[in-house]
Amino acid sequence: MKIPAGQWAIMGLLGVPTGLCAYLIYFGVAVGDSNGIWLFVALGSLFGIPLLAMIIRIAGRHSRLFGHMDRKLMGTAEAYRPHFVPHWFLMTCICVLGFVIVLAILQAVFTIWR
């Protein structure tokens, strides 16, 4: 089965930052910077995990082992059951968070003007 051009493009767009972060992690370890590498580990994971999921999904079409991994890790469409999300709780959290952000901005503005 041929891999579509769009998937190649997405893998390239995810692979470049992942590779650059891996290089910067290697460079940071080589110079002994143990604190700065965690930023690049987090950023590389942000791009690397979807890339790994895509590679497992594509390899699952060709290999029985990766197909089993794909079904176990990603799940299948039949296994998904929709459920109710309590929207009032989410909206309350968003309103409280917005109120806290407005209060923080007002506090910063009024402490500057003193």
What does this structure look like?
- The chain has 114 residues and is mostly helical.
- 75% of the residues lie in helices and 0% in strands.
- The longest helix has 27 residues, at 5-31.
- The chain is flat and about 65 Å long.
List keywords for this structure.
114 residues; mainly alpha; flat
Write a concise synopsis of the structure shown:
75% of the residues lie in helices and 0% in strands. The chain is built from four helices and no strands.
Q: Per the principal axes of the C-alpha atoms, what is the gross shape?
A: flat
Q: How many alpha or pi helices?
A: 4
Helix content: over 70%
Class of secondary structure makeup = mainly alpha
Rounded to the nearest angstrom, the radius of gyration is 22 Å
Tell me about the largest β-sheet. none
Order of helices and strands: HHHH
Strand content: under 5%
Stretches with pLDDT under 50, minimum 5 residues: none
Furnish the topology, listing elements before pairings.
Layout: H1 5-31, H2 37-59, H3 64-73, H4 87-112
